[in-house]
Amino acid sequence: MSETTTPAAAPKAPATNRINRARKDYEGAKSTLCIGCGHDLITRYITDAFWNLGIEPHRVAKMSGIGCSSKTPAYFLGKSWGFNSVHGRMPSVATGAKIANRSMMVMGVSGDGDTASIGMGQFVHLVRRNSQCLYIVENNGVYGLTKGQFSATSDLGAKKKDGDINLLHSIDLCSLAIELGCGFVARAFAGNMKQMQAVIQAAAMYPGLALVDVISPCVTFNNFEFSKYGFDYMKDHQEIVNDFGFVPSTDHVEAAMEPGETKDVAFPDGSKVRFKVLPESHDPSNRIKAIELLHEAYEKSEILTGLFYLDFENKPFSEAMGLVDQPLASLQEPELRPSAEVLATIMDRHA
Ligand SMILES: Cc1ncc(C[n+]2csc(CCOP(=O)(O)OP(=O)(O)O)c2C)c(N)n1
Ligand code: SF4
Ligand SMILES: [Mg+2]
Question: Range of 31's domain?
Fold first, then answer.
């Protein structure tokens, strides 16, 4: 007689995270973007990442500029703090928020127009300062909100549906950030769930400025068969330079990765980025090689994705400034008023 066995039930996803919150606690308002917009996928990954990490929503400050991309913080982490600033001005608001209260985890959401054109001056100084910020560029190669004009990340010779051709060279935000000393630089494709989940969690836990340039197709203005920022083009042509997962310090679950040789890079809080070691994998500790790869890809008109550069050399801005741990707004007069001795020392210096 053959024995009938009940198949083991598939492991259910837990209803709550490590701080007993439901995923719903990390959601926001209903999106008003076009159906199929890449930015909505990013919203989903951000919601998942913060839920997985078990970060208290009230500890997060979401900053943005102007654009379809900059609207998205309304659609996730509805119980967090947020400020939708002026076009291109998110970096200074994000820096100010972190200085005022360094216990907050700051996130900046921007677009290719918002960062690479009007906000370029602000972007480069945020990178230089290394103020903690998970900086996500929802990059679609166009100004979606204002009806699809080419942006500064659009490639030379790119065509629009109406036949318009882009006559200008593009700016590669990743290679620029590496040149400026950024310690966490990655590019991901919104259509690659595994890559997006790992990169957003890792960037969220990075202690300084973490740039994540996400290729996020605009289905209304830049998603044709000849568009390099379209879903189909990216699925067929993206060159992935390395495969990695993220292991949070609080988690005993291994990073989602097939068996094989791996190499861990530890974060100050004990989290790890786990890289799969393959002969052709890019080593993200090699700054010069990362720049070379990106320059070569530019020449060949290729779009690379992966974690290009990772180091912890530069101190985050609040640490470099010697800020106290306590939020500045909650400091009381006795803590703010210098003592007679300190005042005397200052006066002596100017005597
Ligand atoms: C000072 C100022 N200049 C211009 C505009 C018009 N404007 C609004 S959004 C935008 C570009 C948005 O493009 P991007 O950041 O790529 O966002 P997307 O809509 O593509 O997500 C522009 C030029 C503005 N709102 N404010
Ligand atoms: S216009 Fe483009 S970027 Fe804006 S919501 Fe629609 S698809 Fe998304
Ligand atoms: Mg855009």
Answer: 23-320
The model's pTM is 0.93
Mutate to test the pocket of ligand 1, among 40, 146, 173, 218 (most ligand atoms within 8 A of CB): 146
Ligand 1 atom at shortest distance from the alpha carbon of 140:
20
> Counting atoms of ligand 2 from 1, which one is nearest the CA of 140?
3
E-state strands within 98-230: 105-111, 133-139, 142-143, 149-150, 184-189, 209-215
Domain-embedded: residue 211 = yes
Number of domains within the chain: 1
* Of the listed ranges 109-118, 200-209, 340-349, the one predicted with least confidence: 340-349
- Beta strands 304-310 and 60-64, pairing class: unpaired
Residue 351 confidence (pLDDT):
84
Which pLDDT score, from 0 to 100, does residue 335 have?
Answer: 87
Angle subtended at Cα 22 by Cα 18 and Cα 26, rounded to the nearest 5 degrees: 100
152 backbone φψ class: left, alpha, beta (φ>0; ψ -120 to 50): alpha
What pLDDT sits at residue 301? 85
In a domain, 142, yes or no: yes
pLDDT per position as a tens digit, 307-332: 999 999 999 999 999 999 999 989 99
| Overall average pLDDT of the 271-295 stretch | 95
**CATH code, 265:** 3.40.50.970
Chain-centroid distance of CA 301 in Å reads: 23
Question: Is 326 inside any structural domain?
Answer: no
